[in-house]
Amino acid sequence: MNLQVLMAQLGFMSAENREYLRRMFSRAPEGFLEHLSLKKIEQGTLFIHENAPVGKVFFLLNGRVRGMEHRVLGVKYQYTQFEPVEIFGSMEILLGFDRYMATLETGTDCWFLITGREDYRRWISQDIDALLMETRSMGRYLLEQGRKERLLLFLQGRDRLFFLFCQEYQITGSEEKCTIRWTRQELSDCSGLSTRTVNRLVKTMQEDGYIEYHRGRIRITRDQYERMQEYLNGITFE
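RESULT FIELD:
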């Protein structure tokens, strides 16, 4: 399989993400491309387990993946989420680790390109352009994750939901509105708050005009987003 054939199979990706993947694979040998398999993994599937041997590398093409932590007082906690294009298993291989360092779960139905550990290692170690692209991607992720953790460390209750809602608006919002498609349990997992606290805070936020409901979902308008963002700017840059 050559690059042109592979790209023809990925029409469901956004043009920007397809171009990113095309550039990453532009110098990949056909032998590597032939070992890539396209697979759909359903929402809610734990497809990588922390401490399991690194056997496969997953290229996220479509959908969302959640980084999950299960060791904090026995409570499931979502500490980050990923969108295309991300490569899972790459960091462990480049750092010389034999086992996965995180547990990952599909937050939506997801499409992946999957290859074996050794096929990926041989290719990425010989393709300087692809290696540089992946190194930059990992660096941006680590910097952003550190920033997020520093902010959440000082945010309590409602402010954590403000932060998460603003992030979601920035990622998925149109010019005028954003629909939060997370369940209350998912909001609990991501914020570290109990579902009872989440329910109470969501009700208060609705009463105060920060959010509204539309067909059973939380919806945020542009004005509401700007109001929450202004509040967060005030407490994080004081």
